[in-house]
Amino acid sequence: MYKVKVYVTLRESVLDPQGKAVTNSLNALNYQEVTDVRIGKYMELKIEKSERDIHDVVNEICHKLLANPVIEDYRYEVEECVTQ
């Protein structure tokens, strides 16, 4: 079994209004050193081993459901889980 950590973020060229609102709020709270915030999504998937390559499976899942490839980028980490 694999544990996959997926991180989805807006592309740098895409405006992030939620991140801008958080940046403004932090500046209003006197955290002037914060100059930018980008908001994203984090997901953990548990995937059974199969004949298919785990990277092919995760890329398909991200492209079809978890990320919008037009405006979002994603990256992931795969950990092999030890079952007892």
Task: Tell me the layout of helices and strands.
Layout: E1 2-10, H1 17-28, E2 40-47, H2 54-66, E3 72-80
Antiparallel strand pairs: 1-2, 1-3
Looking at CATH, the homologous superfamily of the domain at 2-14 and 40-80 is Phosphoribosylformylglycinamidine synthase subunit PurS
CATH architecture of the domain at 2-14 and 40-80: 2-Layer Sandwich
Low-pLDDT residue spans: none
User: What is the CATH fold-level name of the domain at 2-14 and 40-80?
Assistant: Mth169, Chain: A
SSE order, one letter for each helix or strand = EHEHE
β-strand percent reads 25-35%
Largest sheet: 3 strands, antiparallel
Number of helices: 2
Structural class: alpha+beta
In helices, the fraction of residues equals 25-40%
Give the number of DSSP strands. Answer: 3
Spatial strand arrangement across the major sheet: 2-1-3
What would a concise description of this structure say?
The chain is α+β, with helices and mostly antiparallel strands. It contains 2 helices and 3 strands, in the order E-H-E-H-E.
Structure description:
It catalyses: N(2)-formyl-N(1)-(5-phospho-beta-D-ribosyl)glycinamide + L-glutamine + ATP + H2O = 2-formamido-N(1)-(5-O-phospho-beta-D-ribosyl)acetamidine + L-glutamate + ADP + phosphate + H(+). Belongs to the PurS family. The radius of gyration is 17 Å and the shape is elongated. The relative contact order is 0.35. It is of the alpha+beta class and 84 residues long. It has helices at residues 17-28, 54-66; strands at residues 2-10, 40-47, 72-80.
